[in-house]
Hints:
Blueprint: E1 8-10, H1 26-38, E2 43-45, H2 54-63, E3 72-77, H3 89-101, E4 108-111, H4 117-128, E5 136-140, H5 144-155, E6 161-167, H6 174-177, H7 180-186, E7 190-194, H8 217-222, H9 226-243, H10 249-257, E8 261-265, H11 269-279, H12 285-298
Helix pairs in contact: 1-2, 1-11, 4-5, 9-12, 10-11
Amino acid sequence: MTKLPKIALGAWAWGNDGTFGGSLTADSLKPIFDTAMANGLNLWDTAYAYGMGTSEKVLAGFLKGLPRESYLVSDKFTPQCADTSSPTAMADMIEMQLKLMELDHFDVYWIHNVWDAPKWTEELAKYFEGKDNVPLLGVSNHNLAEIKQANEILKSHGLKLSAVQNHFSLINRSSEDSGILEYCRENGITFYAYMVLEQGALSGKYDTKHPMPEGSARAETYNPVLDKLEVLNAELKKLADKYGVGPAQIPVAWAIAKGTLPIIGVTKENQVLDVVKAANVTLTAEETAELEKVANSLELNVIRFWEKEMK
């Protein structure tokens, strides 16, 4: 059984695709990687879609020469990036990604979104059926009905759904409200929570006086509601002070308390050290409930353009 750390590190921003603004280089990212590995954070989440292979290539450069058992790679089949007219689209993409990353297997492999997902889940199952070194198989951005369908397809090939990855945070709990978290618990599926910090909006770094830098997609989403986010960030700061950590550690600790495995995007070394601290904070049930009460009162909708309500 693959032993997973409490938190996965996301290399989405490493793709330099404009989502986060700015630009990152391999030289600036290497110390981040080294710090993470030194602290036992060895699960790296990437996708070809993150800069059309850029994120994968950067990560591959860092992994080169390390013992294969010392790290875990989570990668994705993104139908929009595949030649979907080819009968071997699934195999072609997996094998292209493995070659790009100079790996012989992935540890977790996902269907990235719901575009024609039953077809691609079937193709994924056919590809891995009977193979050695089958990764943990997962689906991302799926609702409950779609998750159940994916599990049935995999079961029909002697495989199982092991992972679900959705946007999940204090201000977007639709994966809990819809029963997805409960279904995952009941079926031994690890739920990976991405955007737990809402791309920095719940980090305490931004407020009405200090908005996100204009020109990025996240600024368009969060800057108009910074007045509401200030209310929640104030609550996060109270708990952060209690536990001797920064405000950004509390939403991560909250996601762990909910039984999920947060994926935290890292672009700075101090963010990795923050993740280490967050993994050591255990919130009480009362603290978790109070945070959710405040978050609910704000009535925010931060569903992004690539996703949907998980009804």
